[in-house]
Amino acid sequence: MADVIEFLSNGGTCAGYLAGDGGPGVVVIQEWWGLNDHIKDIVDRFAAAGFFALAPDLYHGETTTEPDGAGKLMMALNIDQASKDMSGAIDELQRRTGRSKVGVVGFCMGGGLALVVATKRPDAVAACAPFYGLIPWASAQPDWSALTAKVEGHYAADDQFFTPDDAAALQTRLRGLGKDATLLVYPEVDHAFFNDTRPEVYDEEASKTAWLRVLDLFRTTL
Length: 222
What we know:
The chain has an 8-stranded mixed beta sheet, with helices on both faces. By secondary structure, the chain is α/β, with parallel strands linked by helices. The chain is 38% helix and 23% strand. The chain has a single domain (2-221), classed as Rossmann fold (3-Layer(aba) Sandwich). The mean pLDDT is 96.
């Protein structure tokens, strides 16, 4: 089963792409391009692997294929509303699965937001898998002390947006707070290496390895 649905979002509604017939819930958070076919394909892949997956449409209908447009959409994103929409997606998955715990995975902008929502919903997010996550909004810096999820991040050695040094610093900070966090850096790959619609950066081997790790993370924690 796969469909575009509307779910409650703190008194309002948000649309999202849902797939799955059972199993644990996973929230999939979009890149800065919006809720496009690539993100929907990832939702479908989680469903095929035995999960109930939902990608909330944080841009509320807008997508782009141009970097300039994506940057504008990202910087214009209302973080408070995005947090409500992601939290609503968690609630929807809890309702549909009958389970209290969910996993969160996100890519680029969504990787940063995955960490944000994990700190805002420690009651529900048991596992968080950020891919090359960016948190460019000053108002959205997470309260790391609130984090309870197991974090396994996936980062790129050649990434100029969130560098290996950035990943190492974040891992050190989280572990210093007693958090269960491992931020993996994949050699000889670039930002967005998991995006198979972008042949200029996609890396098949690293993507397969990362995917299996994410499935294992969610299967052992949810």
